[in-house]
Amino acid sequence: MTEGVETGTASTAGTGPASFGRVDADGTVFVRTATGERSVGQVPGVPAEEAMAFFTRRYESLELEVSLLERRIASGALSPDDAAGSVKTVRSAVDGAHAVGDLDGLLARLDGLSPRLAEQRAAKRAERAKANEEAKAAKLTFVEEAERLAAGNDWRGGVNRFRALLDQWKTLPRLDRSTDDELWHRFSTARTTYTRRRKAQFAQQNEQRESARTVKEQLVVEAEALATSTDWGPSTGEYRELMTRWKAAGAAPRGVDETLWRRFRGAQDTFFAAKTAAMSEQDAEFAVNAEAKEKLLAEAEATLPVTDLAAGRAMYRDLLERWSALGKVPRDSIRPLENRLRAIEQAVTNAEEERWRRTNPEARARAEETAAKLEAQIEQLEESAAKAEARGESGKAAGARSSAATYREWLEQAQKAIADYSG
């Protein structure tokens, strides 16, 4: 019987899974491994090939499972931890499996996956480390921006930016607990600080607006009380003061501010419209005065320039008396008429100054003294020229006469000045 079993075994031998086992005469199937031969099961009453095929098919299923696991690990479809669990499960199935085939080879293939899993674990750790660094850098950037916002005064845009930063923060992975808690504490503190400052700012603004509301309501009352005034000058000044106080009061609550401004502006418009109408009526009445003053000016201007100071003074006094009697002129005519009046006054003043210059005894004395000195100098030069010529020094004589000629020119100018003062 033993020989028959070996013959049967030989008929199933080859390079396939069956080469790793044999079938006993009673249908018991054995598998050979590195640790020796062991029974994997019994299939009585069937040919040896059929019994062997039953257990080799089990091996083929295991081999397929190992191959699939290898491909999934190679493709990265499994995480290293999940892959390690699958390797452990398949190894348990292969180790001691009731199957015939190269079970040691399957175990070796499973063991060969360990370096690959180690590489994947290292890669995953590197990826996590990189992701953590990127997340840390991003969170630190968010924290720094949040702290800048907390120190600033962007009360509108800051709210939206804090909301966007928080949404982005939530998308980032958590870091190690201490680092993540520290960064979150800084971010949360900045947001709280900003929120408190913003609320305080708005509370202060509301208080200021309510204060401005009280002030502007009083200004409106005062402006409306002046709207019917006909005391044009003082009331105009009061309206200017009211406008200055209005600007200094600041903004009231938006809707209230607009309503108060319309009332304030309406009172102003009423007053200034009435003033403009009254001034236009006055200007028409004053036009006659302006025409009369222009005639007076024309008469006075015809006497210019002033050659007779007494007559000029009399003309100007008469002009002022008649000018004052005529009364007011239109506003647009005031400056041109007064400019012409001042020009006439200046002409009389210039004539007075010119007369004083000509009759000034001190100036005449200085001119006469200058002339006397020049005459003496000329006499000395002429005497020097005569002596030099007598000595035969013609060059010195010529120089002295040239200097004397220059002094004579100066003397003529001095004598003209004396004549002017005499006039």
Structure explained in plain terms:
The protein is mainly alpha-helical. The protein has five domains: 124 residues, no CATH class; 79 residues, no CATH class; 62 residues, no CATH class; 77 residues, no CATH class; 62 residues. The protein has twelve helices and three strands; from the N terminus they run H-E-E-E-H-H-H-H-H-H-H-H-H-H-H. A three-stranded antiparallel beta sheet has the order 1-2-3. The longest helix has 50 residues. The radius of gyration is 62 Å and the shape is elongated.
Write the layout of secondary structure elements.
Elements: H1 2-12, E1 21-23, E2 28-33, E3 36-42, H2 48-75, H3 80-94, H4 103-151, H5 157-171, H6 177-226, H7 232-249, H8 254-301, H9 309-326, H10 331-359, H11 361-390, H12 394-422
Antiparallel strand pairs: 1-2, 2-3
Helix pairs in contact: 2-3, 2-4, 3-4, 4-5, 4-6, 6-7, 6-8, 8-9, 8-10, 9-10, 11-12
